[in-house]
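Deliverable D4.2, example record:
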Amino acid sequence: MAMLGKQVRMSRLINKKSNKMMAITVDHAISRGIAPMKGLQPIQKTIDAILKGRPDAITMTKGIAEHCMWNHAGEASILLKCSSYAPVYPTKDVAFGTVDEAIRMGADAVSIGAMTLGNYQDIQFEEIGKFSEECMRKGMPLIGHIYPKGETVPKDKQNSWENIAYSVRSAAELGIDIIKTTYTGDPDSMSKVVNLCPARVVIQGGDACKTLDDYLNMTRDAMDCGVGGVTMGRFVWDYKDITALVIALRYIIHEGYSVKEAKELLTQLENDKNYEKF
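Output generated by the structure prediction step:
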């Protein structure tokens, strides 16, 4: 029965037409500080705008879910973020949530993070192992936010395919079902990462991207090279029209739109505000 429960929840996260997942994250305040996160101020307005664009899922902590999701129950899957790092400990994720809380709140997955190849990898992997066993036992998908950003990795090597491959394969070895990580920068090397990992690999928004074109091109390239979806945050809720961008991304991910088609759709949505038609 637990395995059936996991399959039921996974089916709500993955679009049947595209076999991809589109999630938006709003879990940044603990890890990065709230003052610089203008798109998360106020959080309710941001969540309302995101969900109007109809993503598959939204990643958030338990407190934000309790405060902000009452009017959106059932509109998108909740991915309950159960750990975080902090500005003073950027390589150490600490757990503060539980699988039972996720079940009680109606979440379709538990999300936990780790920074690999650093001083705290052992502690974080031990925690993930415990979550993995409990998630399997209770029928809950486990999502990992796993990045090669530990102390041994130079900043210019955090996007290398070898380090990202190590991170995602380690996550799969630990029993994570969906692995969020960094895009390597090009389709060929990202394809290598996807091919050596039996679990689903999805990408974050991308620290290297600077413009709208950068993000849209990265998303299109990632879908084409076999990445299993996206879970993006700052790029989306820092945009001037959050709902329009969520829809445009959804059409790239699930409808196969080109970057050109997505930009045309985005412009039309920004002008006409007819979100409900899409």
